[in-house]
Amino acid sequence: MAGYLESIIRNQHCKTNTYINGLLEKARNEYGVDSSEFKGIYNQYFKIPSKKSALKNRRYYEAEVTGKDIPKGLERLYRRSVAIDLLSACACECVYCARGYFNRFALSNTEIQEVAKYCANDKFLQEVLITGGDPMIAPSKLKLLITELASKAPNIKIIRIGTRLPVQDPEMFDPSLFTFFESMKKRFIIEVALQANH
């Protein structure tokens, strides 16, 4: 099986949006192509690696997962927390992003309900990390998942959300999420983790 970098070198193409392209052009015009401002953006989204690696092309959740009947989109590696992949899409794809090599998906409403039911049936679970892709680009699905957890899983106390949207396309952020999070503040501790680089 080809390593990540070998596969990236052969197959990967830049997948960015107008916002990221504008940032790159601005950095080029204001600081030049040899600046750290330009290279920081360019290396993240446009620089295709030139070296090969022995890393294998495996999904990150193919690590040892414990438990039975784990629903689609859920990663269970720790006793008190789970990661939930709401969808695979992101506002952009960094050239090193392994998710571009896996099948595209978005959890259906039924699958979201199954995830919430699974979480409710485990007394050790206390927190969830909602990730993807980027859950902030699907506010309706994100709200549904959190609402399902609120009504079905009283054991869940903390919700963490991983997002890159503020750095990849801030105009795409749905302001109704602020109101929604505010409405849930007595039910959950909600933390938003900004994934600014990797």
List keywords for this structure.
198 residues; alpha/beta; TIM Barrel; 2 domains; five-stranded mixed β-sheet; 35% helix; 12% strand
Poorly predicted runs of 5 or more residues: 52-65
CATH class value of the largest domain: Alpha Beta
- Per CATH, what is the topology of the largest domain? TIM Barrel
- Multimeric status of the protein: single chain
Which homologous superfamily in CATH is the superfamily of the largest domain?
Answer: Aldolase class I
What is the 3D shape?
Answer: elongated
Termini Cα gap: 24 Å
Strand fraction: 5-15%
Number of helices: 7
Class by SSE composition: alpha/beta
DSSP summary, beta strand count: 5
Largest sheet: 5 strands, mixed
Secondary-structure element series: HHHEEHEHEHHE
What is the helix content? 25-40%
How many discrete structural domains? 2
* Order of strands across the main sheet: 1-2-3-4-5
Can you give a write-up of this model?
- There is one protein chain.
- This protein folds into two domains: 4-45, no CATH class; 60-194, TIM Barrel (Alpha-Beta Barrel), CATH 3.20.20.70.
- 35% of the residues lie in helices and 12% in strands.
- It has seven helices and five strands.
- A five-stranded mixed sheet has the order 1-2-3-4-5.
- Helix 2 packs antiparallel against helix 3 (36-45) and helix 4 runs parallel beside helix 5.
- The radius of gyration is 19 Å and the shape is elongated.
